[in-house]
Design brief:
By secondary structure, the protein is α/β, with parallel strands linked by helices. The chain has 4 domains: about 1-25 and about 145-245, Glucose Oxidase, domain 1 (3-Layer(bba) Sandwich), CATH 3.50.30; about 35-140, Enzyme I, Chain A, domain 2 (Orthogonal Bundle), CATH 1.10.274.10; about 255-565, Phosphoenolpyruvate-binding domains (TIM Barrel), CATH 3.20.20.60; about 570-655, Alpha-Beta Plaits, CATH 3.30.70. It contains 25 helices and 21 strands. β5 (about 175-180), α8 (about 185-195) and β6 form a beta-alpha-beta unit.
C-alpha cells in the first residue's frame, strides 16, 4: 500500500477503482489571416454555442445552487469585454486566427491569476482556462469533453478538473474526486461539496494504472493506493457511520447547536455575495460570521457604487432577520486588482499594502463602503469587521472612519443604523498577543485561522512545496487562539472563528474548549458542525483543549482530538424485550452479538418474560444491535428502544450478563 496526504476539500470516504482523466488542450498553430471578419464570426458563433451549453448546465444543477453560481461566473467571463474583447483585439489588430488569439488571451489571463498570492483568486485560473478551452474547442470544431469512457462507478483522478467537466459527470458514476492541483477554495471543492462527493486536492500521486483500487478520506486528505482489505473494511464502516450522521444532521439543521451540558454555540455561514444568503438560511445558518465583500468589488469594469453596495448588504441583512451578519470590509491588496484602485507592484504583497492598511490608505473607498453598511444596518443585525489589524493604531483609525461615515450621513440627511457591532479579524500574531489592549475598543474578535496559521508558522499555504506545514492544529496557533479568548473574557467580548478550522469537525472540541462561542463555516458544513457541537460536553472540551495547549506539535494535538472524536460519537441504547426470551440462551446470544459489534453494556431480567438490554458504543453499531433484537428471538416483542448520545468509555468486552 502507498499512502499520500493532500488537502481535504469535501468530506466523506471514497473507495473504488481509479478512472484517469486527462484534460489536454488541443494543438494550435499560430496563423496570420487576411479575412479577420471570418475569424470574428467564428468567435461569435462559438461564444453563442458555449453560452448555450453553460446555461443548460446551470439549469441542470438548479439556479440557486453553488454549482450554478460557479457556472454563472463563467457566463459573466464569457460576456466580459476584457476577456473576449481582448481576443477580438488580437484578431483585428494582429490578424491572428481565432483559435490562436483565444489560446493566448486564456493563458495570459490564467497566468496572471496564478501569480497572485490570494488563494481564492489564484484558484480562479482554472475557471478562465475552462471557458477558454470550451471556446477553443468550439472554434476548432472539436467535441467538448464527455465521459463516454466512464463505464463503472469510479474514483476520478486528474491533474485538475474544469468546472464544466465536473458539472457533466454522469449521476452515480463518481465515487469521489482526487486531483494533484487545486486548493480547498477551488471550484472542484465547490462542486464536490454541492454534489455530495468526497474530494481530496493538492495530492502528490505516483503514476497510477486505470482500475487501481484507491481509497481516501475527504476530511483528513489521506489517500491510500492499493489498500489492504482490513483497511477497506474499516473505511466502509466509517462510510456508513458518516451517512447516518449526515442524515441526522440534515433533519436537525434548524435546531440550535447546544452541547450536551447546555452551552449554546452559534454556527454561522461564510458567504461571498447576497446570492449565498438564501442557501445559508436553508441549511440552518444562525447568521453570517464572514461576508467577504471583496467579491462585490472584483471582476468589474468600473468601481462599485455606494448604492450598489447598499443594496447588496441590505439584501443579506434582510434574509437573516434577527441573526447577526458580520461584514468584513474590503480585504484586498497589491496582489488583487480592483477597478479604480491603483496599487504599485510589491515584492511581497502578503506582507504589503493589504486589508485595513490598504483601505486606510484609500479613505474614499472605505468611506463609501462604511456609509453603505451603516445605511443597510437598519434592515437587520449588523456587525462590521476590519481585516488584518495588527495593532491598536489601526483599530482606532478604523473606529474614527466609522465615526466620520456617521457624520457624513447626518450631514446628507440619510437614515442609518447606530445599533451595530464592531470587531476585528485576528489574523496577525501581534493582534492576538495584545488582544487585551484591543478588547476595550471592539465588541468581538473573529479569528481567521488560515492567515493566522501562515503568519505564525511562516508558511505560504498556497505553495504546494510547503503547504502541508501550514497546520492550524499546531500548538503555537492554538495558544494564540487561547490568548485571544482569555483577553476577551474580562471585557465580555465574544470570540468567533471564521477560518477553515471552524468547519473541521475534529477541531470543534478544542475551539469551543478554548472559549470560542461562534463558528462560521462554509455553507454546506453548517448542519454537520451543528451536529458535532451537540455531541460534545464543555467539561470534556475544556479538558482536551488544556491538553492540546501542552502538546509539542500538530500531530500530538490531532492524536488527542482523535481519541475524543471516537468517544463523542458513541451513544447508548436501552431496549425492553418482552416474550419468551428468558433463559441463558437468549441472554448469551445477545451478549455474543453485542461483543461482535464491539459494544459495552449488560443484559438483565426484569420480571417474567421481560429482559432489559443496555448497550453503549458507536451509534451505527447500536442500530445494528437494535435491528438484530427486533428480528432475533421468536415470539418476542422489542419495545421502548431509545438511543442517546453518551460519553461512556467502557471496553467492548465489558458486555456481560447480570446474574440476578
Amino acid at each position: 500500500m502507498i499512502e499520500r496526504t493532500g488537502i481535504g476539500a469535501s468530506p466523506g470516504i471514497a473507495i473504488g477503482p481509479v478512472y484517469l482523466h486527462s484534460a489536454t488542450l488541443p494543438q494550435v498553430a499560430v496563423r496570420r489571416v487576411k479575412d479577420t471578419d471570418a475569424e470574428l464570426k467564428k468567435l461569435t458563433l462559438s461564444e453563442a454555442k458555449v453560452q448555450e451549453r453553460l446555461e443548460g448546465l446551470q439549469q441542470l444543477h438548479g439556479e440557486d445552487s453553488e454549482e450554478a453560481e460557479v457556472i454563472g461566473a463563467h457566463l459573466l467571463l464569457l460576456d466580459d469585454p476584457e476577456f473576449t474583447g481582448e481576443i477580438r483585439m488580437l484578431i483585428e489588430d494582429d490578424s491572428l486566427c481565432a483559435e490562436a488569439a483565444t489560446l493566448q488571451v486564456t493563458e495570459e489571463s490564467a497566468g496572471m491569476l496564478e501569480s497572485l498570492e490570494d488563494e481564492y483568486l489564484a484558484a480562479r485560473a482554472a475557471d478562465v482556462r475552462d471557458v477558454g478551452t470550451q471556446l477553443l474547442k468550439s472554434i476548432m470544431g472539436l467535441p467538448l469533453e464527455t465521459w463516454d469512457h466512464l463505464k463503472v462507478p469510479s474514483v476520478l483522478v486528474a491533474s485538475d478538473f474544469f468546472p464544466s467537466e465536473t458539472a457533466t459527470i454522469p449521476p452515480g458514476m463518481a465515487l469521489g474526486l482526487c486531483t494533484e492541483e487545486g486548493s480547498a477554495t477551488s471550484h472542484i471543492a465547490v462542486f464536490a461539496r454541492g454534489m455530495g462527493l468526497p474530494a481530496v486536492v493538492g495530492v502528490d500521486l505516483p503514476p497510477l494504472e486505470p482500475g487501481t483500487r484507491v481509497a481516501f478520506n475527504g476530511e483528513t486528505g489521506q489517500v491510500y493506493i492499493d489498500p489492504p482489505q482490513d483497511l477497506i473494511n474499516r473505511l466502509r464502516s466509517q462510510q456508513e457511520e458518516q451517512r447516518r450522521t449526515r442524515e441526522g444532521a440534515a433533519e436537525r439543521a434548524h435546531e440550535p447547536a447546544v452541547t450536551r451540558d447546555g452551552t449554546r454555540i452559534e454556527v454561522a455561514a461564510n458567504i461571498g455575495s447576497d446570492q449565498d444568503a438564501a442557501r445559508a438560511v436553508e441549511l440552518g445558518a444562525e447568521g453570517v460570521g464572514l461576508f467577504r465583500t471583496e467579491f462585490l468589488f472584483l471582476d468589474r469594469t468600473r468601481p462599485i457604487s455606494e448604492e450598489e453596495q447598499y443594496e447588496a448588504y441590505r439584501s443579506v441583512l434582510s434574509d437573516f432577520g434577527d441573526h447577526l451578519v458580520v461584514v468584513r470590509t474590503l480585504d484586498v491588496g497589491g496582489d488583487k486588482q480592483v477597478p479604480g484602485i491603483e496599487i504599485g507592484e510589491e515584492l511581497n504583497p502578503f506582507l504589503g499594502l493589504r486589508g485595513i492598511r490598504l483601505t486606510l490608505a484609500r479613505p474614499e473607498m472605505m468611506h463609501a463602503q462604511l456609509r453603505a453598511l451603516l445605511r443597510a444596518g437598519s434592515a437587520g443585525r449588523l456587525g462590521i469587521m476590519a481585516p488584518m489589524v495588527a495593532g491598536k493604531a489601526e483599530l482606532l483609525a478604523f473606529r474614527e472612519a466609522l465615526t466620520e461615515a456617521e457624520r457624513s450621513l447626518v450631514a446628507d440627511g440619510l437614515d442609518y443604523s447606530t445599533d451595530y457591532q464592531v470587531g476585528i479579524m485576528i489574523e496577525v500574531p501581534s493582534a492576538a498577543l495584545i488582544a487585551d489592549r484591543l478588547a476595550p475598543h471592539i465588541d468581538f474578535f473573529s479569528i481567521g485561522t488560515n492567515d493566522l496559521t501562515q503568519y505564525t508558522l511562516a508558511v505560504d499555504r498556497t505553495n504546494r512545496e510547503v503547504a502541508d506545514l501550514a497546520d492550524s492544529f499546531d500548538p503555537s496557533v492554538l495558544r494564540l487562539i487561547a490568548e485571544t479568548t482569555s483577553a476577551a473574557k474580562p471585557h465580555q467580548r465574544w470570540v468567533g472563528v471564521c477560518g477553515a478550522m471552524a468547519g473541521d469537525a475534529q477541531a470543534v472540541p478544542v475551539l469551543i474548549g478554548l472559549g470560542v462561542t461562534e463558528l462560521s463555516v462554509a455553507i454546506p458544513s453548517v448542519p454537520i458542525i451543528k451536529e458535532r457541537v451537540r455531541s460534545l460536553d464543555m467539561e470534556s472540551c475544556q479538558r482536551v483543549a488544556a491538553q492540546c495547549l501542552k502538546a509539542a506539535d500538530a500531530a500530538e494535538v490531532r492524536e488527542l482530538l482523535s481519541g475524543m472524536w471516537a468517544t463523542s460519537r458513541r451513544a447508548h441504547l436501552e431496549a425492553v424485550v418482552q416474550g419468551r426470551v428468558q433463559g441463558v440462551g437468549f441472554r448469551w446470544a445477545t451478549v455474543t452479538r453485542a461483543r461482535d459489534l464491539r459494544l459495552s453494556g449488560r443484559v438483565c431480567n426484569q420480571g417474567d418474560e421481560t429482559v432489559l438490554v443496555k448497550a453503549e458504543g458507536r451509534r451505527g453499531r447500536l442500530e445494528e444491535l437494535a435491528d438484530w433484537l427486533s428480528r432475533g428471538p421468536r415470539h418476542a416483542i422489542v419495545t421502548g428502544v431509545e438511543m442517546h448520545w453518551s460519553t461512556y468509555q467502557g471496553r467492548w468486552n465489558d458486555f456481560n450478563i447480570d446474574h440476578l
